[in-house]
Amino acid sequence: MSAFLFDPATEAERFAARREFLARQEALRLDLAPGVTFQPETAESVEDQIRETLLAEGIVPVPGSDDYREAAGSFAALAPRREPGGLSVAATLFLGFPAPERDARLLALEGFPEILALELADGRRVLPAVDRGAARPGERLPAVLALRWTLPPEARIAALVADHPALAGRFPAPPSWSHWAQAD
Question: What is the pTM of this model?
Answer without folding.
Answer: 0.86
